[in-house]
Amino acid sequence: MAFEWVSYFECGNCGLEKPSPEVPYDRLGYAVCPSCGVETMPVYVEMTSFPTVLDG
Q1: Which of 6, 23, 27, 39 is the most buried if burial means most Cβ atoms within 10 Å?
Q2: Any idea what the Cα angle at residue 36 is, between residues 29 and 5, rounded to 5°?
Q3: In this model, does residue 7 exceed pLDDT 80?
Q4: Spans of all domains in the chain
Q5: What is the pLDDT averaged over residues 18-33?
Q6: In this structure, are residues 31 and 17 in contact, taking their beta carbons and an 8 Å threshold?
Q7: Other beta carbons within 10 Å of 33
Q8: Looking at the whole model, is its pTM more than 0.85?
């Protein structure tokens, strides 16, 4: 008996859930929601201060 694990894409904008193989991807490999067209991207975290050697 074979079991094939399928990962799912969930759109953070419209909530659509689809198996990842059914979702289109842009030229950089990020998923594009087939329902609302929102493109996924890496999470951007803004740093307000940078740690230094003196911070310990």
Answers
A1: 23
A2: 50
A3: yes
A4: 1-56
A5: 93
A6: no
A7: 20
A8: no
